[in-house]
Amino acid sequence: MTAGVYVHVPFCLTRCGYCDFNAYAGLDHLASRYVSALLREAELAAPAWSSEEVVSVFLGGGTPTTLEVADLKALLARLRQAYAVAPNAEVTIEANPDTVDRPKLEGLLEGGFARLSMGAQSFDIAVLAALERLHDPASVRRAMSDARAAGYTNVNLDLIYGAEGETLDAWERTLRETVDLAPEHISAYALTIEPSTPLGRKVQQGVVPAPDPDLQADMFELACEVLSEAGYQHYEVSNWAKPGFACAHNLGYWERRPYLGLGAGAHSYRDDRRWWNVRPPEMYLELVEAGRLPVGGEERLEPNDAYLEEVFLRLRILEGVPASWVEPDRAAPFVESGLLRDDDGSLVPTERGMLVLNELVLALTG
Amino acid sequence: MYQRPLVAPATRPYDGPAVTEPMHIRNFCIIAHIDHGKSTLADRLLELTHTVADRDMRAQYLDKMDLERERGITIKAQAVRLAYRFEGENHELNLIDTPGHVDFTYEVSRSLAACEGAVLLVDAAQGIEAQTLANFHLARDAGLIIVPVLNKIDLPQADVDETRRELAEVVGCSPEDVMAVSGKTGEGVEALVDEIVRRVPSPSGDRNAPLRALIFDSSFDAYRGVIAYVRLVDGVLASRAKVRSMATGLESEAEEAGVFAPEATPVPKLEAGEVGYLVTGLKDVHQVKVGDTITSAGKQGAREPLPGYREPRPMVWSGLFPSEGGDYSELRDALDRLKLNDAALVFEPETSRALGFGFRCGFLGLLHMDIVKERLEREFGLELIATAPNVEFHVIRGDETIVVHNPSEMPVPGTYDHVEEPIVYATIITPSAYLGAVFELAQSRRGELGDMNYLSPERVEVHYTLPLAEIIFDFFDQLKSRTRGYASLDYEPLGYVPSELVRVDVLLHGEPVDAFSSVVHRGKAPQYGRQMVERLRELIPRQLFDVAIQASIGSRIVARETVKAKRKDVLAKCYGGDITRKRKLLEQQKKGKERMRRVGRVDVPQEAFIAALRVDQKAEAKK
After folding, report:
1. A268, A309, A316: residue with CB nearest B583
2. The domain B212-300 is classified under which CATH number: 1.10.150.20, 2.40.30.10, 3.65.10.10, 3.30.70.100?
3. Which of A8, A45, A53, B543 has the highest count of CB atoms within 10 angstroms of its CB?
4. CB pair distance less than 8 Å for B575 and A305
5. What confidence tens digit (pLDDT) does each residue in B305-363 have?
6. Which class is domain A2-254?
């Protein structure tokens, strides 16, 4: 079976107010220990995964590019050595525009990180400020041109819409600027307020307004329109790609293929078991340095859980759910109201349907 | 449920006189507004007469129920026997406690009927309040001798002279006749007791006549059954006597006669003029009715009952439903239990399309309703949804009167001649500065001004005839907020009058929601309808389709709002592999949905029902 490997790098230059990922600013001093631990964990975990063909590797974070190129190369080399990584495997690295320049990008490409995913977030300086992103729009343009000059032919730009003060017009400008840079892949996420983040607390206290869901819906629809005109295919709720450039690694999650997560807080999945590493980097380091797998928890999926996931993920990637899975009475009102369409025996969400996917999932799974 | 424990006879024999000559008996009550210090004064009386040993004394001794102590009011009347030596003679003083709330006017009147005198207790810093005034009138009309007393004279803000003048004016006595005490410090209390003995007449009544005992209250004891609180008017009531309740015709054996001193203490017999309790041997509180007369069973029984008996009549109705997942049978059992010692509570099963199975319950008034709800929630651990309270309407069709307790059962216009609603005679006492605000409020509630009386240049007594339906719709809260808490209110039923009432229905997505139906005056119906739909627009979560919220009178739509369809409900990000969390979010959302009630196609959260049915002061104040 084919599998993916995810490597988590929990370091960031600064912590953004909206982000609830397992990421930390000011832990850079742990970087070299952390790289060693990743190398060690890769070895510890490898025996159990010897029968899987690894078709994708994804370095995410945090900001993986806060690590030295040499370390990143060594890491990838170790993965190729310990796992059956397919020669044509998709290898992605996430980057912050401010953490990469042309020499670094050349080094990464040369080291085998052939797909670059950059957090652009917005081309509107006010939106970037609201998101507490340090970079300015110019640095995204610069990083993009550096990437092209370095030889990158597979680049993703991440966008976030619906931050405080962002108008539909401002969002359209961001979309147009993005399209002008012609990345192969675009992820556009509606800003989600996570209660445990600084932004979440501000919203709770009423200091910052919560995003307007109707405006975010308009923004979503605008993204669908602008990106499809520009030749991008909408293949997941928040993801668009030029033909042939869908992200194989993320598709692995959504298609419920096995994946191994390495690093602090990384999640893994195989055979109806989900498990995850401990989140605090220091704890992760201690466990791995003691020669132990740093697993922090696990769950076994009951058939109901698995079914709910299956339906939910299939709807997200527009693969749809076979109509035969669902009682006809449940689906009919949604087909009628244009939230689902019956695509040759498959129930697939329409654009409007994708926006209310949670409701559809709950309605279809009863 | 609270049950008063009865003390076993051997442990504490009553050490007062077994039977006191009538000339040495004084039966009196204390009429006071909430917080004017009745319970504290009662504590001082218990101490002064050594009725409670010092070491056993605790604050608000007589307010035994938890609920009473917290709310600062007394629900259950109680009678305490105080032994007092005055001018060399042993006296028996019976302090009969009266409920202090407008819901319980009938109960008050029965307690008063057991007395010859009443202490009219008024906070020297507050002045007389409407309920006190109303109860004073009740007492005077019942022929009681009034002893006016100022309380809390120790307070720095007490205006003793002015309040004394006001009280003398109200009672029609000279200011010197007004006593002044401090329940807190005990100042003046002994003089007051002397004065009670002097002024309050001893009971008349014939010990040789057939037994007639007035039941002025009752309670239920889990071990002993129903306890009746009685005032012997004529004759003798001995333990073990066969007795008959004259209104119900039920006969039983008087298992035990006793007095409260202050704990229940058996005595061989009670004689005319005395006050005490009777363990009736009956198990159902509804068989022992307040106001009924107890006499001897058989031929020695009295012919004529004592006057004034009335069946308890609920004034306010509300549907009570178990909230989500709640159990109908648990609610039924809890109501059955409460009914055991609450003779005024009535209920009948009700089925609501929106709220499921529940009960339409009748209460004496809003306070009674709140107490019952609170006890159901607190003592029985139930979570309830209560529909907005309503009065009982009479729908007249030819010779027939259809009694409607539930707005959704109100017949459609055109199928009847007219509708009648209950009205009340309301007494409001307010500082004259707020008179305008009071007029405005009463006018907006269809009030008709009666007479007015200046108690002093600063305080006015105003009378209104008002529909009860308007009173139970947050009138009291409004009155308080518009007079900064200074006004007080009392009312008594005046019967039914024809009225232009219509039923307003609320429809969700075209589906009427019976729980939201209300009967309101025609002139106010559109405004009421608008208010309801606006409130619901805020409360109904967005669905996958536009939800129309409409208010209608018959087939006419009087208000409409729309909850726009929800457009966005999707997890934006789903990568990084943490699918578990995403699934849990969905499961949570699913649970939330399951907690909602479905009205037609519309999911309505529990909280929306509760909030929409609450008589909301803020919404009201915005008008």
Report:
1. A309
2. 2.40.30.10
3. A8
4. no
5. 998 888 778 899 999 999 876 788 999 999 988 887 777 899 999 998 888 899 999 99
6. alpha beta
